[in-house]
Design a protein that fits this description.
The complex is a heterodimer. Chain A has helices at 25-30, 35-43, 45-55, 67-72, 97-104, 106-120, 134-149, 180-187, 216-228, 230-236, 267-274, 308-313, 332-346, 352-372, 375-388, 396-416; strands at residues 83-88, 124-129, 165-170, 211-215, 244-251, 257-262, 265-266, 284-288, 305-306, 322-327. Chain A contains 16 helices and ten strands. Chain B folds into four domains: 3-77, Ubiquitin-like (UB roll) (Roll); 93-205, Alpha-Beta Plaits (2-Layer Sandwich); 283-353 and 506-737, 3-Layer(aba) Sandwich (Rossmann fold); 356-500, 3-Layer(aba) Sandwich (Dimethylsulfoxide Reductase, domain 2). In chain B, the strands form eight sheets. Chain B has a seven-stranded mixed beta sheet with strand order 15-14-27-26-25-16-17, covered by helices on one side. A five-stranded mixed beta sheet of chain B has the order 2-1-5-3-4. The radius of gyration of chain B is 28 Å and the shape is globular. The N and C termini of chain B lie far apart (62 Å). Chain B is an alpha/beta fold. Classes of the chains: A alpha/beta, B alpha/beta. At the A-B interface, helix 13, helix 14 and helix 15 of A face helix 2 of B. Bound molecules: flavin mononucleotide, iron/sulfur cluster (3 copies) and FE2/S2 (inorganic) cluster (FES). One iron/sulfur cluster binds next to helix 4 of chain B.
C-alpha cells in the first residue's frame, strides 16, 4: 500500500475514508456508509437524477460528460434488462486514482453502483477492473460478499423489496477496453474493440440493454453527493464543474501523489504548492495536464483553473486528472516517443488510421530519436498525426495524435536539435517520468 | 417507410428513412469509396474511406454508418475529404507490399483502383514494412497478411453469410491478423466466398493463383452444372492447345439469381472438364471384345446403323433411352423427340431425383403458387420439410439464412435429421424418418397421424397461422404425399411451394418429357395433342421406365439402349451382365461404369461447353452460354442430330432450321410442311429469325416455346441473362395413365463435396479435407431402389 499524501488545500470527500480501514464493511458503516443508498431508496429515481444533475458532477473518466444527464438518457421502459457498469479500467498513463478508491474505499463504489441502479431501475451492475489491478480484486470481491451478507446486495436490498446484484470482472491488459463500448465487448467475452455509435450505451449497451457506464471515481462520488446534498457539492467546485476530484500528480515534483482538490484549482499552485514544486531547483519544462493523451502545456500556460472548461480553453484537456510534470532535463522527442509507444502498443487495430498511424509514428520517432532523423521527418510526423486526428473509429487515435501534434508545435526546436545524426542533447531520459 | 429528403454535393436526394447514406448516394450515382462496407453484412466503420462532411457535425462522418436524415447537407468530394481518403490510402499502403506485378488481384484490386483515384502514390516512409509469411489454409484458400487491409469482409461473409464462422481476427494493433478456425488451417465449407469478397490479393484461390493475369482471360456468364439451384457463374477462360480452358469461376457482377453466392462446386468444381480421363475420341467395341478408339464417322455410322437395325427388326419398343440431369432443355427435348419420332419408342427416362410429375398434378390450377428460388430470400415465413439445403441446396440455404438474418423471416424446420439450418429456425420439429407423410396429416388436423407432443402441437399452431408461407419440401415427398402436402398448403393464404431435386437440370429433364408416360410439359403420351400434329406418328402407350428397361434388358428383351450423360449402372447398382444382349450407345465425358459396357462411346461436351437453357429446381429458366471448349468432343445436341441423320431421318424433321422452311410448303403437303409452316408463323409472330443450322439449340428452344405452354417466357430477358419463371403445366395428369410402378425417385444424396458421377472427376472436391467425411457418409446411403423386382 502506497503512503498517503496530503496538503492543507485538500478537501477530503472522496478520500475521507482513505487510510481508515474502510474496506471493512463495519468501518465503512461507521463512516456514514450506505446512508445515501438508503436515502436513494426512499426518495426514488427522479430525485436521484435531479440531485445528480444539480450537483454539476462531470464524468471523471476523461470526457467530463455531466453524469446526471447521462443517467437521464436511459429509457424508462425497456424490454431488455438495464445495467450499471463501473469503468475501473484505469489505464491512461499518469492516472492512478481509481486504484486508491478500490483499495481504500471499495464500498463507496458498491454504494454508488446501487444508487445508479436505482436511478435507472437496473437490477444488475458490473465492476470492470483493469487486468493489471487483479491484485485489488480480492478487496472488491470481499466487499461485495460482505454487502451481500448484510443484505445490501442480492434480493430485497435493505429490506426494500428491490433486488440488485453486482459482479466483478477483470480485463486482460488492454487500454482500449477502457473505452466504454470496447469494455462492453470485452465484458461480453469478445475482442476488445469499440462499437459503432449511435446507438449509445444508454439506449443499447451491455448485452443490448440500456446501460449506464461511469468511471469508478464518478461512481464513488455519487454517495457523497447525496450525503452532503447537491447544492453543497456543487459549491465545492467551479462553474459548471461541481465538486472535487482526485488529481494524480506525478513526474518531477517534490511530493508526487493523489490529492483531492476542488474542481477549478489552479494548476500552477497544484504543482508548486500542493506537490511542493520541482526538485533539485530545476526549471519546469512542460506539463501534461490530464493523462498522456492530453496536449502538453508550456510553463507559460499553466496559470489556469483545473476544470474541464478552463483547460479546454487553454488548448488541452482535463482528461483523467493525471498531471505529469516535466523538468528541463526531459528530452521532448523521447517523451513524444514514449507516449506514442504506448498508443501504438494499445491500438486495438480495428481502424486504418490508428492502427497504421500509431505504428508509423512509432517507427519514425524511434529512428528520429536515435539520431537518424531528417528535417522532412518532422513534417511527416505532424502530417501523420494530423491525418489521424478526428478520423479514427474511436478516440484512441485522437489520444495518440493530439499530444504528438502539440509536441511538434510547441517543441519543434527540440526536434530540430536531433537532426543529422546529432546525439540526443539530453543526458536524462524520460524513462522515469511515464510508468 | 416514409422518405426523407437531403442534399449531397448540392444535389437533392430522396430516400427511405433508415437508408444508409452510402447506399443512398450510390443509388444516384455518387460513388463513396469503401473497403469495409459491404451491403448485407454488418457495419464496421473500420476503413474510414467513406468519410464525408455533414453540416453541423464537427468531425467527418462515415457514410457507411450514417442513416440519412431530413434536411441533412452532405459534401462527399471536397479537398478536405479527398485529403482524408488519400491519407487513409497512404497509411494502408505503408505496410502493403506493393507486389502488384505478381499479385493475383492485380487489375481487379480495389486498393489499386482507389490509389489510382486518390493518388496516394508517394511513399514517405523509410522503415521496414511489417512482414509475415504467406499461409496456406486449405487446398483452395491462401492468405497473405502483408496484403490484407483488415476490412473484415472475409470474416463477416464466412460468419454472417455462410454461418460457418471459420475466420476471426487475432492479436491487436498493427499485428492484427485474420486467422483460420483450426490453428493453421481451415475446416469449413470451402466455398471461397472469403476470397471473392476480399478487395485485395490477401486471400487467393489455390485453384486459380498464379495461372494468369485477369485481363488475359475472357469471361462468360453461364450456369453452374452441379446442384438443382442453378447459380449463375462467370467463368474465366483462356485458350489452350486443345481448346478453351476454364481457370476461374466466380460471380463478381452479382447479376444472377444467386447474388454473391457460389458454393465450392460452383466456384471450383469445373475442373472435371480437364480431368486426365476425359474422353476425346469415340470408342467402338472391336470383335476382340475391347473398346478401341475410332473416327467419328465410323462410330456414328456404326451406332446409327445398329440402332436402325434394331428398330426395323424388333420394333421401337425394344429400344430404350436414358437421358441426363445435366444436359440442356434443348437437348432433353430433342432426345425425347428423337426417341419418340425416330426410334419410335416411349421407353425413355432419366435418373429422377424428385417427383415432379406428382408436383405438377397437385399444383394444376394453382400456377401462381409455384415458388422461385428468389422467394426463399424474400418470403416472410418458410416451412422446410425434409432435405438438408446446406448440403444439397447450398444457394437455397444461403437465401434462407440471409432472409432470416436481414428480414427476420420466420423459418420453420421439420426434419428427421439434425440439419444445420435448425440454427436459423424459429421453431422446429424432429420427426421420425418415416414420419413425413404423417406430418402433413398432423398439420392438416389429424392428431393420430403423428405421435403428437406438446411441441408438435405448438409447431402446428404457428404454421397454420402463417400467411404467405413458402413451403419447401425434399424428395421425402412423392406421389400422393405431395398431393396431401399441396392440399394442406393451399388451405393457407398465399402459400407457395417448391419441390427440391438434386441436379442442375433435373427439373428440365422432367419438364422436357424424359419420361415414359409424359411428353414435354407433362402431357400424357396417350393424348399427345399438339405433339401428334407436330411429330406425326407417336407411340401412344406409355413406355418402360428406367428400371423396367434394365429388367427387360436382363430378360434379353431390350435390343438397344441409348444413354446420354447418365451413369445408371453405378447409380442403380445394375449387374453388368444385364446388358450383355443389348446394343449400348453411351454419350459421356468419361468412361463411367455404364460407358465401359457400351458398344459405342461418344465423347460429349459438358454444360460449360455448350449453349442452351436449363431449369432449376424451382422452375427458374436460365441461359447457358458456351464458355469452354475441348478438342475432340461434341455437344449432346449435335450427337443426337447426327445419329438421327445416320439412321436416315431428315434432320429438318427433328430441328426446324433453315430459311427454306417456307419454300418447302408447295412441294410436300404433310406433317413436315405443316411443321415448317407453323414454326415459321410462330417465329414471325415472335419477331424471331429462323435458325440456320441443324445444330443450333435455339431452333429447338423456339419449338419448346411454341409447344410447351409453361416455357413461354420473355426471350429477350432470358437472353439478357435473367432468370425467367416457367409455370407448372395446366394439363391434367391422370395418374392412372402412368405405367410406372413407382415414382422412380432415387435421391442423389449429394453433399457439398459430392456431385454424382461428375463429382468424382473433380480433383478439388477430392482434395479438400472436409470431403472425406461426407463422402463416406454418402456412400453408405446410396441406392435405395430395389432393382431386382
Ligand atoms: C481509448 C479510451 C480509453 C478509455 N479508458 C478509460 C478508463 O480507463 N477509465 C474510464 O473511466 N474511462 C475511460 N475512457 C472513457 C470511457 O469511454 C467513458 O467515457 C467513461 O468511462 C465514462 O465515464 P464518466 O462519464 O464517468 O467519465 C476511455 C476512453 C477511450 C476513448
Ligand atoms: S482508433 Fe481505431 S484502431 Fe485505434 S483503438 Fe480506436 S478503433 Fe482501435
Ligand atoms: S483478408 Fe481480404 S477480406 Fe479479409 S480482412 Fe484482409 S483484406 Fe479484408
Ligand atoms: S449452390 Fe448449387 S448451383 Fe450454386 S454453386 Fe453450388 S452447386 Fe452450383
Ligand atoms: S466503408 Fe465506411 S468506414 Fe469503411
Amino acid at each position: 500500500m502506497a503512503n498517503l499524501v496530503s496538503h492543507p488545500d485538500v478537501v477530503p470527500l472522496l478520500s475521507m475514508r482513505f487510510g481508515k480501514g474502510a474496506s471493512a464493511l463495519d468501518r465503512y458503516l461507521e463512516l456514514e456508509g450506505y446512508q445515501s443508498a438508503r436515502k436513494a431508496l426512499e426518495m426514488g429515481p427522479e430525485w436521484i437524477i435531479s440531485e445528480m444533475k444539480a450537483s454539476g458532477l462531470r464524468g471523471r473518466g476523461g470526457a467530463g460528460f455531466p453524469t446526471g444527464m447521462k443517467w437521464s438518457f436511459v429509457p424508462k421502459q425497456s424490454e431488455k434488462p438495464k445495467y450499471v457498469l463501473v469503468n475501473g479500467d484505469e489505464s491512461e498513463p499518469g492516472t492512478c486514482k481509481d486504484r486508491l478508491i478500490f483499495e481504500h474505499d471499495p464500498h463507496s463504489v458498491i454504494e454508488g453502483t446501487i444508487i445508479a441502479g436505482l436511478a435507472i431501475s437496473a437490477k444488475m451492475g458490473f465492476i470492470y477492473l483493469r487486468g493489471e489491478y487483479r491484485y485489488l480484486l480480492k478487496i472488491i470481491e470481499r466487499a461485495i460478499e460482505d454487502a451481500y451478507a448484510k443484505g445490501f446486495l442480492g434480493k430485497n436490498i435493505f429490506g426494500s423489496g428491490r433486488d440488485f446484484d453486482i459482479v466483478s470482472h477483470t480485463g486482460a491488459g488492454a487500454y482500449e477496453v477502457g473505452e466504454e463500448s470496447a469494455l462492453m465487448e470485452s465484458l461480453e467475452g469478445k475482442r476488445g474493440i469499440p462499437r459503432i455509435r449511435p446507438p449509445f450505451p444508454a439506449v443499447v449497451g451491455l448485452y443490448g440493454g440500456p446501460t449506464v457506464i461511469n468511471n469508478a471515481e464518478t461512481i464513488a462520488t455519487v454517495p457523497h453527493v447525496l450525503r452532503i446534498g447537491s447544492a453543497e457539492y456543487a459549491k465545492l467546485g467551479s462553474e459548471r464543474n461541481g465538486g472535487t476530484r482526485l488529481f494524480c500528480l506525478s513526474g518531477h515534483v517534490q511530493r508526487p501523489g493523489v490529492y483531492e482538490l476542488p474542481m477549478g484549482y489552479n494548476l500552477k499552485k497544484m504543482i508548486y504548492e500542493v506537490a511542493g514544486g520541482i526538485p533539485g531547483g530545476k526549471q519546469l519544462k512542460a506539463v501534461v495536464p490530464g493523462g498522456s493523451s492530453t496536449p502538453v502545456l508550456l510553463p507559460s500556460e499553466i496559470d489556469i483553473g483545473m476544470d474541464f472548461d478552463q483547460v479546454a480553453k487553454a488548448g488541452s484537456m482535463l482528461g483523467s486528472g493525471g498531471v505529469v510534470v516535466l523538468d528541463e532535463s526531459v528530452c521532448m522527442v523521447e517523451f513524444a516517443l514514449r507516449t506514442i509507444k504506448f498508443y501504438q502498443h494499445e491500438s486495438c487495430g480495428w481502424c486504418i488510421p490508428c492502427r497504421e498511424g500509431t505504428d508509423w509514428l512509432k517507427k519514425t520517432l524511434t529512428r528520429f530519436h536515435s539520431g537518424g532523423g531528417v528535417n522532412k521527418d518532422i513534417d511527416n510526423i505532424k502530417y501523420l498525426a494530423e491525418n489521424m486526428l478526428g478520423k479514427t473509429f474511436c478516440p484512441l487515435g485522437d489520444a495518440a495524435a493530439m499530444p504528438t501534434i502539440a509536441f511538434i508545435k510547441k517543441f519543434r526546436k527540440e526536434f530540430e536539435d536531433h537532426l543529422d545524426g546529432k546525439p540526443c542533447p539530453y543526458a536524462h531520459t524520460a524513462e522515469s517520468v511515464l510508468v | 417507410m416514409a422518405d426523407v429528403t437531403f442534399t449531397v454535393d448540392g444535389k437533392q436526394i430522396t430516400a427511405p428513412t433508415g437508408t444508409l447514406l452510402i447506399d443512398a448516394c450510390r443509388k444516384v450515382g455518387i460513388e463513396i469509396p469503401a473497403f469495409c462496407y459491404y451491403p448485407g453484412l454488418s457495419l464496421q466503420a473500420a476503413c474510414r474511406m467513406c468519410l464525408v462532411r455533414i453540416e453541423k457535425i464537427p468531425k467527418l462522418q462515415t457514410a457507411c454508418t450514417t442513416p440519412v436524415a431530413e434536411g441533412m447537407i452532405v459534401a462527399t468530394e471536397t479537398d478536405e475529404i479527398k485529403q482524408a481518403r488519400k491519407a487513409m490510402l497512404e497509411l494502408v499502403l505503408g505496410n502493403h507490399p506493393l507486389d502488384c506485378p505478381v499479385c493475383d488481384a492485380g487489375g481487379e484490386c480495389e486498393l489499386q483502383d482507389m490509389t489510382f483515384k486518390y493518388g496516394a502514390a508517394e511513399s514517405f516512409h523509410t522503415e521496414m514494412k511489417q512482414h509475415r509469411e504467406e499461409q496456406q489454409w486449405s487446398p483452395v484458400v491462401y492468405f497473405d497478411r502483408p496484403r490484407c487491409i483488415l476490412c473484415y469482409r472475409c470474416v463477416r461473409v464466412c460468419g454472417e453469410g455462410m454461418d460457418v464462422w471459420a475466420l476471426g481476427v487475432q492479436n491487436r494493433g498493427v499485428t492484427s491478423i485474420i486467422a483460420p478456425n483450426k490453428e493453421d488451417h481451415l475446416e469449413c465449407e470451402e466455398c471461397g466466398a472469403c476470397i471473392d469478397i476480399c478487395p485485395v490479393g490477401a486471400l487467393t484461390s489455390g485453384a486459380y493463383r498464379y495461372k494468369t493475369r485477369p485481363w488475359e482471360m475472357n469471361h462468360v456468364a453461364t450456369i453452374c452444372t452441379h446442384c438443382g439451384d442453378g447459380c449463375k457463374t462467370t467463368l474465366g477462360l483462356r485458350s489452350v492447345d486443345d481448346g478453351v480452358e476454364i481457370i476461374r469461376g466466380d460471380n463478381r457482377d452479382k447479376s444472377g439469381i444467386n447474388g454473391d453466392f457460389l458454393c465450392i462446386k460452383g466456384r471450383y468444381s469445373f475442373d472435371f472438364a480437364n480431368h486426365k480421363d476425359r474422353l476425346t475420341k469415340p470408342l467402338v467395341r472391336r470383335p476382340d471384345g475391347n473398346l478401341a478408339p475410332a473416327t467419328w464417322e465410323e462410330a456414328l455410322d456404326y451406332a446409327g446403323k445398329r440402332l436402325a437395325e434394331v428398330r426395323d427388326t424388333r420394333g421401337g419398343a425394344s429400344i430404350g433411352v436414358i437421358g441426363s440431369n445435366r444436359t440442356t432443355n434443348e437437348e432433353n427435348y430433342l432426345l425425347q423427340k428423337f426417341a419418340r419420332k425416330v426410334l419410335g419408342t416411349n421407353n425413355i427416362d432419366h435418373h429422377r431425383t424428385a417427383d415432379y410429375t406428382s408436383f405438377a398434378r397437385a399444383l394444376a390450377g394453382h400456377q401462381d403458387r409455384a415458388a422461385s428460388l428468389r422467394d426463399a430470400g424474400t418470403a416472410p415465413a418458410i416451412l422446410l420439410i425434409g432435405n438438408d439445403p446446406t448440403q444439397q441446396h447450398p444457394m437455397l440455404a444461403w437465401n434462407l439464412r440471409t432472409n432470416v438474418r436481414l428480414n427476420r423471416a420466420r423459418l420453420y424446420v421439420a426434419n428427421h435429421a439434425e440439419i444445420k439450418l435448425l440454427r436459423q429456425a424459429r421453431a422446429s420439429l424432429a420427426i421420425p424418418q418415416d414420419g413425413y407423410a404423417g406430418l402433413i396429416g398432423y398439420l392438416a388436423g389429424d392428431d393420430s397421424a403423428l405421435a403428437g407432443t406438446e411441441s408438435s402441437a405448438a409447431f402446428r399452431e404457428v404454421i397454420r397461422k402463417e400467411e404467405n408461407l413458402l413451403i419447401l419440401f425434399g424428395s421425402e415427398y412423392r406421389g400422393r404425399d405431395i398431393d396431401a402436402l399441396v392440399n394442406f398448403g393451399l388451405g393457407l393464404p398465399n402459400a407457395k411451394f417448391a419441390c427440391l431435386s438434386d441436379y442442375n437440370n433435373s427439373r428440365g429433364a422432367a419438364d422436357m418429357g424424359l419420361m415414359p408416360d409424359l411428353l414435354p410439359g407433362y402431357q400424357p403420351v396417350a393424348s399427345p395433342a399438339q405433339f401428334a400434329d407436330e411429330y406425326g406418328n407417336l407411340p401412344q402407350t406409355g413406355g418402360l421406365d428406367l428400371i423396367a428397361m434394365f429388367d427387360a434388358a436382363s430378360r434379353g428383351e431390350l435390343g438397344a439402349l441409348y444413354v446420354v450423360g447418365s451413369n445408371p449402372v453405378s447409380r442403380y447398382n445394375i449387374a453388368p451382365g444385364a446388358l450383355k444382349d443389348t446394343f449400348l450407345v453411351v454419350q459421356d465425358m468419361f468412361l463411367t461404369e455404364t460407358a465401359v459396357l457400351a458398344d459405342v462411346v461418344l465423347p460429349a461436351a459438358n454444360l460449360y461447353e455448350k449453349t442452351g437453357t436449363v431449369t432449376n429446381t424451382y422452375g427458374d429458366l436460365q441461359l447457358v452460354k458456351k464458355a469452354a471448349d475441348k478438342a475432340g468432343v461434341r455437344s449432346d445436341f449435335e450427337l443426337i442430330v447426327r445419329l438421327a441423320d445416320r439412321m436416315g431421318a431428315n434432320p429438318k424433321e427433328l430441328v426446324s432450321y433453315g430459311i427454306g422452311m417456307r419454300a418447302d410448303l408447295g412441294q410436300s403437303r404433310g406433317v413436315q410442311s405443316g411443321e415448317s409452316d407453323r414454326h415459321a408463323v410462330w417465329l414471325a409472330a415472335n419477331h424471331l429469325e429462323p435458325k440456320l443450322s441443324p445444330f443450333d439449340p435455339f431452333a429447338i428452344l423456339d419449338e419448346i416455346q411454341r409447344l410447351v405452354p409453361d416455357y413461354q417466357v420473355d426471350r429477350l430477358a432470358l437472353l439478357a441473362g435473367n432468370d425467367e419463371r416457367t409455370v407448372p403445366p395446366l394439363v391434367h395428369i391422370d395418374n392412372a395413365s402412368s405405367k410406372t410402378r413407382s415414382d422412380g425417385v432415387l435421391p442423389a444424396q449429394d453433399t457439398l463435396f459430392t456431385s454424382g458421377t461428375l463429382g468424382r472427376y473433380s480433383s478439388i472436391l477430392d482434395e479438400v479435407m472436409e470431403s472425406r467425411e461426407t463422402k463416406s457418409a454418402g456412400a453408405a446411403a446410396t441406392t435405395s431402389l430395389d432393382v431386382s423386382t
